[in-house]
Design brief:
Strand content of chain A: 25-35%
Number of helices of chain A: 13
Radius of gyration of chain A: 24 Å
Shape of chain A: globular
Radius of gyration of chain B: 14 Å
Oligomer: heterodimer
Largest sheet of chain A: 8 strands, mixed
Number of strands of chain B: 0
Number of helices of chain B: 2
Structural class of chain B: mainly alpha
């Protein structure tokens, strides 16, 4: 039992086809992982949404395979991480080879305070099925299959999209629209917007094979292996005895000929022989891939927000594609919920594009370097790569060039006065919170609220702020928590709803009234001035 | 070892370097000579330990190559 069985989700006739013209708070175009995560982030905060998905099923083939710790933390907040961990394969290490010699050993940070492994491998369609299951059980989410968004109109008050279904077309209205409709986004095209940036020349054939092997889960990369001279090969293990193999095509390889299953089988056989995998195997899925660093100039267009591949296409090297899309969903989710619930002004939404676009540009920088090393774009880069790889066999100093620079959480620019110069360590404003395995059991990440969270360290009474219903207070009174946060007993950290530090203070004021003022001011700064230019 | 030293080469050293490098280039052959030189530069950069200095030397080498053109 190996081939993917794709479920078929039925079309259900919506009220709009019978004349309903209600305005929904949020419309989401695209029922992939980014759209579904956005819907769950909103629902978690009490905001309903309508998700419009063109297809009747999940993605075909493994597609995104590696989910980062940050992605797991985000979907854990939505109730999806347990199922992902039940199915997924966690990993920490990787090995890179030059020809047949090991030249780099990847070891990602991992420790007792982390709830999740740095990476977990899982087929994208399994993640989708897990999210769909959660969405279907949530009364606030209306997920509509076989409902293709074909057009968009908007003014200052409202956005309206045209939807094509098996039973006819209808228009549906919303206060806001999240366009998570993928790399070939219809909404992007309808609005006349285009992705800008750079595309790389190197092409990769990506294939899933079914093969029984007890080789552990890790990332393996071969540069110029005997099985594929001059090219680069990547290999990742997935659940269900599925292995993902990505191999670089040479410049003179013909695409049509290379996509022939017989040709793919021959090339993979050569590689499996070389690494001494002897078990019988079958080809499950294959696709052609080219690296891009492309994004929109602005992820907001009026009342429409672009997220995931609709907003940006990034190279696969470093596993940032879907992981950055999930971070987009996390970011727009809490912000839309905050303004719809009336706890933040519309201006908060202005911070979505600067924050997430800056994260994309950082990915371009990191993944661009990886791409150039994985697929040298010119003879000069090719010569230098070979020189660096040959030296790396015995020399440590060129090995950082081989580091795949795996996805890490992004730092959001934050006003300087949100920080306190008395801190010399701990997460800075803009950084993600630091997780902690609590002495009482569980993790700090389990306790973060859907709104802002105030972290106290044992010397200050939790404030009484009835007019800030969105505030969760957590007291970490053990010494190790204070070390992680460079905190004194009277320190305080304010976390945004996405877990990024909004502000921190080494010594909170002495009186409850003054603490209240500080928190209120810090929240206001975070929701009014989320952007620091 | 970390700082450039123009007086560091004794009389005749440049002759020895010239000879050794020419022989090594011949040994590398047309297929490998560029990779060999790149490795040599990376190793010398490691011992020099100074990004600005390495960049300046690359520019210097590029300059004299350019003037010949």
């Amino acid at each position: 039992m190996s081939a993917q069985v794709r479920p078929v989700f039925p079309f259900k006739r919506p009220a709009e086809l019978d004349g309903d013209s209600a305005t929904h708070p949020v419309l989401i175009a695209g029922g992939g992982p980014v759209g579904l995560t956005t819907a769950l982030e909103l629902a978690k905060r009490g905001v309903p949404s309508v998700v419009l998905e063109a297809d009747a099923t999940v993605a075909e083939g493994s597609r995104a395979v590696c989910f980062s710790r940050r992605t797991l933390e985000i979907i854990d907040g939505l109730g999806a991480a347990t199922a992902v961990m039940d199915h997924g394969l966690p990993w920490v290490h990787g090995t890179s080879y030059y020809q047949d010699r090991e030249v780099y050993r990847l070891s990602m940070p991992h420790g007792e305070n982390e709830k999740f492994y740095p990476m977990v491998n899982l087929q994208q369609y399994t993640l989708e099925e897990i999210l769909i299951d959660l969405v279907n059980r949530h009364p606030l989410i209306d997920l509509r299959w076989q409902s293709k968004v074909t057009g968009i109109t908007q003014d200052e008050q409202i956005v309206s999209v045209a939807v094509e279904t098996p039973q006819g077309t209808y228009d549906i209205k919303g206060d806001w629209l999240v366009a998570a409709d993928g790399a070939r986004s219809t909404i992007r095209k309808q609005l006349g917007l285009s992705l800008k940036g750079q595309s790389y020349e190197g092409r990769y054939l990506i294939a899933d094979i079914h093969m029984e092997s007890d080789y552990p889960t890790e990332r393996r990369a071969w540069f110029d292996p005997p099985s594929n001279p001059g090219a680069t090969i990547l290999m990742h293990k997935q659940p269900g005895n599925i292995w993902r193999i990505d191999y670089q095509l040479r410049d003179d390889d013909d695409e049509i000929a290379e996509l022939d299953p017989k040709r793919i089988t021959d090339r993979i056989t050569e590689h499996l022989d070389f690494i001494e995998e002897r078990a019988a195997w079958t080809l499950e899925w294959s696709s052609l891939y080219k690296a891009h660093c492309l994004c929109l100039d602005d992820y907001r267009h009026g009342r429409c927000f672009f997220a995931g591949d609709a907003a940006h296409l990034v190279p696969i090297f470093g596993v940032r594609g879907l992981n950055s899309g999930i971070a987009d969903a996390n970011n727009i989710g809490w912000k839309l919920a905050a303004i719809i619930k009336g706890v933040a002004p519309d201006a908060l939404l202005d911070s979505y594009s600067p924050e997430r676009r800056a994260a994309t540009l950082d990915i371009f920088d990191q993944a661009g370097k990886s791409t150039i090393f994985m697929t040298p774009p010119s003879r000069g880069y090719e010569i230098l790569r070979q020189a660096a790889l040959e030296l790396a066999v015995d020399q440590a100093f060129t090995r950082p060039l081989i580091n795949p620079r795996q996805s890490t959480p992004y730092f959001y620019a934050t006003p300087e006065d949100a920080d306190d110069p008395e801190f010399t360590a701990g997460p800075r404003p803009g950084d993600l919170f630091t997780n902690r395995h609590l002495p009482t059991g569980g993790f700090l990440s389990d306790k973060l609220g859907p709104g802002f969270t105030l972290l106290l360290f044992g010397g200050v009474m939790p404030p009484d702020l009835p007019n800030l219903p969105d505030l969760t207070t957590i007291t970490l009174s053990d010494p190790q928590s204070r070390v992680l946060y460079d905190a004194e007993k009277d320190s305080g950290y304010l976390l945004r709803p996405d877990g990024h530090v909004a502000a921190r203070r080494k010594h909170l004021p002495k009186t409850t009234a003054a603490i209240d003022d500080y928190i209120r001011h810090a929240i206001e700064r975070a929701i009014f001035k989320g952007i620091e230019k | 070892m970390n700082k450039p030293n123009i007086d560091g080469l004794a009389d005749g050293d440049i002759d020895a370097i010239f000879e050794t490098l020419a022989t090594a280039l011949d040994d590398a052959g047309p297929d490998q000579e560029a990779v060999f030189l790149a490795k040599l530069v990376l190793l010398m950069a490691r011992d020099l330990g100074d990004l600005d200095h390495v960049t300046k030397l690359i520019d210097e080498a590029r300059g004299s190559y350019g003037s010949k053109k």
